[in-house]
Amino acid sequence: MPNKKGTKGLGASNGHNGHHGHNGHNGQNGLSAQAKSNGGSDRNKGYRPTEKEPFMNERQRDYFRQKLLSWRDDILKEAKETLQHLQDENQNHPDLADRASSETDRAIELRARDRQRKLIAKIDAALHRIDDGTYGYCEETGDPIALKRLEARPIATLSVEAQERHERRERVYRDD
């Protein structure tokens, strides 16, 4: 279930650099002060992780951090716009049909916002995994998650194989 927001550009950053897990880099890699202060996004413009480089090296972690931060910023911006829309729409409709339609729209928007709130929690958890060095590794098997899967779903915590096993188990229990 890839979300189109997850494939947007990498422009947004809150300057979060965090700890760099597995390979022990200390962050002194010749970046300009500007690139360091914005999480390295300058050097990642046009960059796409490949299988040819070491898995979850510093550049890949920076890439996914920027992708996640941008996605979270987009969601928060949409939430503010929705809140403003709901406040503007908070008027009394004399017509019963208009009022019902408005209430239905409001309920749909609030459910969508609740789903996005949960998504933000997953994004924050993924950012934490980047910081502690566990990002990109299957939480069930410990194996690397394919880069293509992380591109499509940067919050993934399971490899494709582990996810399929999980979904098969869910179906078995659901069918009982």
Share of residues in strands: under 5%
Largest sheet: none
First-last Cα distance: 25 Å
List the domain count as a whole number: 1
Instruction: Give the overall shape.
Output: flat
- How many strands? 0
Radius of gyration: 20 Å
DSSP helix count?
5
User: Mean of the pLDDT scores?
Assistant: 78
DSSP helix fraction: 40-55%
Give the CATH topology.
Answer: Four Helix Bundle (Hemerythrin (Met), subunit A)
The first-level CATH class is given as: Mainly Alpha
Stretches where pLDDT is under 50 for at least 5 consecutive residues are: 1-41
List the helices and strands and how they pair.
Layout lengths: L32 H5 L20 H32 L6 H37 L14 H6 L7 H16 L1
